[in-house]
Design a protein that fits this description.
- By secondary structure, the chain is an alpha/beta fold.
- It has one domain: Rossmann fold.
- It is built from ten helices and seven strands.
- The chain has a seven-stranded parallel beta sheet, sandwiched between helices.
- The longest helix has 29 residues.
Length: about 290
């Protein structure tokens, strides 16, 4: 029996990494439901452009999820301008893939940990106490179908998304009965610059940012925790869990899922990889300082 749809019109939604891709599509989807939306992004110029496109009920704020103080300032600003945040979408993340773990430089590994793990954790730590005071709220953590398995070429990325899945499971238990809900969103490859140059698997095509956004809104409206995009992935995951390891690995190879993060077209990913590698101003400043030092 389907859960009754909750009305969310008038709610304040805060979205990290909201300037483009899934974040932008999610902002648009919530606005269409009558919500007010705050988007935070490291690229404040892009965020402001997105907010201008989406209309008067969308505001843009600078945000570096690697710094807890910046996350707090983002939420403070959104609440001062729009009201208490009732829905928080931990969307900011990067995916740097295409090499085996021992070939991956330490700065790349650390950057994914800082953004994909610490950034999500900071969002939860800053917004949950506010929601608990009101005994109402909804946390949406954007993980990945990669958080349910490990795929060659993306060991660190998969590891960070395993964290998001596991943390979300634990958080759901910790918040049970509090009035604060949790959803964990696990899409396959999404047709954004983040997956440029990645081959598709057999039988599972890339989804659009709008597909993910609609499932996010639906999860909030219907209080769903496990959010697979597309939903058919839940059946694949369930089947994989029933198989012995040899069977799971054979099916992974048959679907060519073992190639999707390893055999990437580096030339098509060059622009994204460059932008992702400059996703922390503190790291950039340190690197620039090294270059200027005689």
């Amino acid at each position: 029996m389907a859960k009754q749809q909750r009305p969310i019109a008038g709610q304040v939604v805060a979205i990290t990494g909201g300037a483009r891709g899934i974040g932008k599509a999610t902002a648009q989807a919530f606005l269409a439901r009558g919500c007010k939306v705050a988007i935070g992004d490291l690229d404040i110029a892009a965020a402001e452009q997105t907010a201008a496109e989406l209309g008067e009920h969308c505001r843009a704020y600078p945000l570096n999820v690697c710094e807890r103080a910046s996350v707090k300032a983002f939420i403070d600003g959104a609440e001062a301008d729009l009201g208490p945040v009732g829905i928080f979408v931990n969307n900011a993340g990067i995916m740097q893939v295409g090499w085996r773990l021992w070939e991956e430089d330490d700065a790349t590994t650390q950057r994914m940990i800082d953004i994909n793990i610490n950034g999500v954790s900071y969002g939860v730590k800053e917004v949950v106490p506010r929601m608990l005071e009101r005994r109402a709220g909804h946390i949406v953590n954007i993980a990945s179908s990669a958080g349910k398995g490990g795929f060659p070429g993306g060991a660190s990325y998969c590891g960070t998304k395993h964290y998001v899945v596991g943390m979300s499971e634990a958080l759901r238990g910790e918040l049970r009965g509090s009035g604060v809900e949790v959803s964990c969103v696990m899409p396959v490859l999404v047709d954004t610059e983040l997956t440029d140059g990645c081959p598709e698997t057999r039988g599972v095509k890339k989804v659009t940012p709008e597909d993910v956004a609609n499932e996010i809104v639906g999860a909030v409206e219907h209080l769903r925790f496990d959010v697979f995009v597309p939903r058919s992935v839940s059946r694949i995951t369930w089947t994989m869990n029933l198989l012995p390891r040899s069977g799971r690995e054979a099916l992974t190879r048959a679907l060519k899922a073992d190639k999707v993060l390893l055999e990437v077209d580096a030339s098509k990913r060059a622009n994204y990889q460059l932008r992702a590698s400059h996703s922390d101003p503190a790291l950039d400043a340190a690197e620039e300082s090294k270059q200027l030092t005689p």
